[in-house]
Amino acid sequence: MKKYLLLKTLFLLGSLSLQGQDLTQTENYVYSRTYLEPVVFSSSTAKQVQRVNYLDGLGRSKQNISIKATPSGKDIVVPVEYDAWGRQVKDMLPLPQQTTQNGGFFTSPDMTGAVSVYGAASNYYSEKELEKSPLQRLQEQAAPGDPWKIGSGKTIQYNYESNLSSEVRKFVVNTSWATVSGVAVGSPVLSLSAENTDYASGGFYKAGTLYKNTVSDEDGNKVTKFTNGKGQVILVRKNDGTQNVDTYYAYNEYGQQAFVIPPLAVKAIETAGGNTIPAEVLDNLCYQYRYDNQDRLVEKKFPGKGWEYMVYDQQDRLVLIQDANLRTTTNNFGGKGWMFTKYDLFNRVVYTGFFANTATRQVMQNALNSMTSQNIESRSDRSPIVQNGENIYYTKSAFPTGSMTILSVNYYDSYPPGINVPTRPDNILGQNTLVPSPTTMTVNGVTTSRSSNGLPTASYVRNIEDSGWTKDYFWYDTQGRPIGTHSINHLGGYTKTETELDFTGLAKQVKTYHKRIASDVEKIITETFDYDNQNRLLVHKHQVDANPIEILTQNKYNELSQLESKKVGGTSLGSSLQQIDYKYNIRGWMTMINDPSNLGNDLFGYKINYNKVEGQQVPNNDYSDQKVKPKYNGNIAEVSWKTLTESNEPLKTYGYVYDSLNRLSAGFYQKAGNEFSKEYFEKLEYDLNGNITRLKRSAGMLMGSNTALAIDDLKYDYIGNKLIRVTDQQMNYSGYPYTANPGNIVYDNGNISGNGNMTSHPDKGISSIQYNYLNLPKQIVQNAKVTDYTYRADGVKIKKLFGDLETDYLDGFQYKSTRPSEENLSGGGLVVEPDPSEVAVLKLRIIPTSEGYYDVLNKLYIYNYTDHLGNVRLSYTDTNKDGFIQPRQYFQRQCDDVSSDPWDIPNCIDIWKPGEIVEVNNYYPFGLLHDYTATSQNAYQYKFLGQELQETGFYDMNARFYMPDLGIFGQHDPLSGKTLDPYGYAYQNPIFFSDPTGLEGDPVPGSSGTGNPQAIGTAISPIDVGEIVLNPSIRAVSNNNLATCSYCMIGQGQNLRQQLNIPGPPNLEKACRECNDAAMAGIVLPIPSAGVSTGTGTAVRSILAELAGGLRAGLWSLPLILKGDTPKKEPTITLYRGVSSAAKGTMYFEAIQGIAIPNGFRQVATTWGPHRDMEAHAGGDNYSIWTSWSSSKEVARNFATGVAFGKAIPGIIMSKNFHLSEASPNPFTLGEAEWLVPGVTYGAKVEYVLPRAGQ
After folding, report:
1. Rounded distance, CA 327 to CA 306, Å?
2. Residue 1195: strand, helix, or coil
3. What mean pLDDT is reported for the chain?
4. How far apart are CA 185 and CA 365, in angstroms?
5. CB neighbours of 406 closer than 8 A, spacing ≥ 6?
6. CA separation for the pair 33, 3 (Å, rounded)
7. How confident is the model over 450-501, as pLDDT tens digits?
8. Residue 544: inside a domain
9. Which residue has the higher pLDDT, 889 or 928?
10. Considering the entire predicted model, what is its pTM?
11. pLDDT category, 1206, cuts 50, 70, 90?
């Protein structure tokens, strides 16, 4: 994007004239203009983003204006205030104005717009109260809005103390070393301290030896963190209302985290007494880490799992990893071995797979230590590796060189040869494509030599359960942006995408071409996207083949760019099937999806209450101590909803109760007119680790009674965190299946040292579950019925076989075995029991869309209403194509065209038609459907969190399968090490968190809670409540259903822009957050097919392949080290930052103090928070999360003394050592040796410099 930056400050004065702008010349300012469409030099009429930052006499920001940024073309103003000591303790919300001043300073910003979008309030700002001391530590933090303001008692409180005697136990780690197979092996031993020193006595830290910092959230829930003088967290303490819930962290002699001791382990140690830690406590409850003599993590053990081993090459790259099951013959490969990763000269992953070898970790490490050549592979187009008839165009010089089963291959720079490799198109939708050889070309007026060098060109991924391959090829425009993909599936069919991008990289048109097998008739999906002058998505259209164009969405935004309403469905811009209206509170949290108290023609309404309760506080007098109370920390107190499926349907409500750890204690269902019927409630109890120990549940009312049917009273028994038995004391067959003699749940490798996967569950009739090496179930036998799954090596599910009924999953297109009677259904929710004697044929059934799916058999668009979690609540379709949805059954008159009546009166008949609502779903808090059944004949079975319900009653959450009747997963958490309960769901708060990936609970954005209740290793840090989430909270909607995520890094500085087209708004923010998080971690997600993506599953499972195998089994990344792990002592780099005395705003004054603050942290963006886009940062993005540094001190000097700007002025060079994981090279400014550091940097060294003579 073309960007102009103009400064007028105390250091740079003069007469300035800007086309079409009325900047206030009596003020200091920085003005920026970013064009959203190409211009020759300057234009006042082109699409553009304009901002001006006015500065006071000290160079501090005093007003930020986004010019004509609202949907109505008005200005948005963010005033900046300082207290008497020059501190910014108030962070103002963006204030929409009633006019535009074309960049002019607002002496008194109009508050009318604030009232209209935020509601009436006395504080349109967040506020901090700082300690009255030179430390100026944060003491209190208040969010915008009267309920949260200072003095309300509903603020975040901070307290700073030191520990008391006998308050914190002192664990010690002693490491013994030995040489095994030529490799130094350290064995740490954990114990309670028996020493008496200046710091410890009687197994406790002495008083005043630890920092004790406590954070209390708005509801008074406290988290206390104890830290030693080295900055190491020793203890995180919470309280469940009756007892402390402690998590300890123990470090070895070298400062490495060697043990994490969760609350249940702490209690067991206290019960056992003495200084020695029992072995069963370590194995079943603790997290253990071992390092080699090069500070690399080489062994780890999580509770209830066997040891995992890691082996590195001399370049410190992870080459081999082995979990417990790979040390047995019970795996996909029929033998013991390791998962391996191979790299090229640029540290890019080139291929991965399985290495059959029974040697120990020490033997493997010694072999890599003894290598005399570089451990790299090179392209070998003429002499490929041949495996099962597949050519792999690389050498096999790196370790290992034999006994390999190759599972994934990545190609870069140029395209691989081969007979079936598709020809690169020269042009895609009018856009030229990059070629492998450098070619001189002119792009946006700049002539350079460009090629696909440095870009991923193809990726091959093998199926796990058979030898089929999926081959993906990528085409780029002349700016290196992906505009086309060609994926050849394992059946010989394909999915091709073509994307037309605008100047800024937004998709204008996406065409998708698909065949399951080569002989199929091609399906063509065409999507178009229209945007306003600020690139907010306005209209999304969809077309299947030559069928009529469907308008999926027409978006309307409020003056903050929050989605205000969305028209859904229909074939005309002037009409729609439904209009969905959204409302938000002052904190940006969604409060309403339509109004359930006034539906009109709306099929569904949904209301969310946080800090108020409108239903009963005690809806179930059996549990009078469980009260539904207003919540101020982001937890939801109530949700209420209503549909038009019944005449005079009553309003339904769930009121929620939480404990002091923010875990859900109960969800009480209430129905207007009979609020105390005790229907559909769930009540839960937990142990110290958060494992559910008791669950009570009811169903609907008994026939002819006012009393609900109690169906579950479940008692959970555990070994460690593994659920081994469930006893239903209610003795009812509904809900969880009751058995008089409940059977023991069994896990792999005899419950002892496997991967922690559930292999049988007798109560559910599950006699066997087999897993692949990614810990995904490949076969489930339930009541003698077999379900088989087939996955790719990147974890993507491609086939399910339930008995003789097959379902294929191909790039979002879903096929299912279909009987003739099913083809005759007319939609609208009509279900016909198929004749079992019919022969089923595999048919294309589902094409997903951003608002639901396209029913291929009936040629109908099905639309989904979803709640704040993404649960599918109601689905509907326009069966008769009349442009109106009939919510209930209705009469339709049909008449003959030709009449035999002598008076020419047509013969007519009234026909009873079903309503056009396809399904309605209500859920218990943990996801079980009310009046539970498993799947129906409908091919579309995506319900809870938008995930697929299986015939077994499990939900496929991508990384794991979830059991909603128990509220737990059946597999160990792939991200174990971050949570206390490796089988728990959503940190036991399924209303605030969702986990559609099975990896990590996704919190409600914008909330100010004290973090998840089950976190491991995370300090509770202050929340920046001043940065309102404008687009918006609770993950429900976005102002752009095509989210362009940040540049994701691959190898050393290579990059690939990912444009994720995510169907269904509930998955959008999650997917974009994952993409951005992956970019920060050095992972690149695959490119889904633009028109028919399946949500986040593909990307997540590609990451899952690394988590389970410890290496890249899919696309484009360096090996993934689990968060919380420290594989080695990180290398550091010294970076320099030059800041001139003419720098904008307060940047120079901050630099004097050794501080660097990103612009995105100074002001509130009007589009979804601070930006991560590296290219936009290089272009001067004022909302970037990055600060710029350089590995060259000379470059920093040039910026400091004005050489870079043609000036000669004094300045400052800042310098600091960063871990390599803390900074990323910017591939868009290679000439500056630029590195980008996210967030605020403190403590840099400062050097004052003057211009050189003659400069």
Report:
1. 10
2. helix
3. 84
4. 11
5. 351, 352, 353, 385, 387, 390, 392, 462
6. 6
7. 999 999 999 999 999 999 999 999 999 999 999 999 999 999 999 999 999 9
8. no
9. 928
10. 0.83
11. low
Helix (H) / strand (E) containing 1106: helix 1097-1109
Q: 1044 with 932, same domain?
A: no
Q: Which 3-state string (H, E, C) describes 1047-1103?
A: EEEECCCEEEEEEEECCCHHHHHHHHHHHHHHHHHCECCCCCCCCCCCCCHHHHHHH
What pLDDT score was predicted for residue 647? 83
Q: What is the pLDDT of residues 1042-1085, one digit of tens each?
A: 222 222 222 222 222 222 222 233 333 343 334 333 333 332 22
pLDDT in the model for residue 1166:
33
Where a domain ends, among 521, 541, 556?
521
Count of Cβ atoms closer than 10 Å to residue 270 Cβ: 11
Name the strands in the sheet holding 948-949, side by side, starting at the edge strand that comes first in the sequence: 948-949, 955-956, 961-963, 968-969
**Same domain membership, residue 172 and residue 117:** no
Looking at the fold, whether 1066 and 922 belong to one and the same domain comes out as: no
Instruction: Using DSSP, state whether 201 is helix, strand or coil.
Output: strand
Q: End-to-end alpha-carbon separation of the chain, Å?
A: 31
Q: Are 59 and 75 in contact (CB under 8 A)?
A: no
Residue 1243's CB is within 10 A of a number of other CB atoms, namely 9
C-alpha to C-alpha distance for 626 and 302, rounded to whole angstroms: 35
CA dihedral 510→515→519→521, nearest 10 degrees, is -60
369 lies in some domain: no
Q: Is 767 left (phi over 0), alpha (psi -120 to 50) or beta?
A: alpha
Backbone φ, ψ for residue 1188 (5° rounding): -95, 135
Residue 72: both structure tokens together = 């109505």
pLDDT of 19 higher than 60? no
Tally Cβ neighbours within 10 Å of residue 896.
11
In a domain? residue 315 = no
Angstrom distance (rounded) from CA 1067 to CA 1069: 6
Domain containing residue 1087: 1038-1109
Residue 1202 is predicted with a pLDDT of: 80
Q: Dihedral of the CA atoms 559, 560, 565, 567 (nearest 10)? A: 90
Q: Give the separation between CA 79 and CA 278, rounded to whole angstroms.
A: 60
Q: What is the pLDDT of residue 1230?
A: 54
Of 868, 864, 869, 837, the residue nearest 853 (C-alpha): 864
Sign of CA dihedral 613, 616, 620, 624: positive
Taking the C-alpha atoms of residue 438 and residue 454, their distance in angstroms, rounded to an integer, is 12
Buried b / exposed e over 192-220, threshold 16 CB at 10 Å, is bbeeeeeebbebbbbeebbbbbbbbbbbe
pLDDT at residue number 1177:
63
What pLDDT is attached to residue 788? 98
- Asked if residue 717 has pLDDT above 60, the reply is yes
**Domain contains 465:** yes
CA distances from 597 to 577, 636, 648 (A): 20, 19, 11
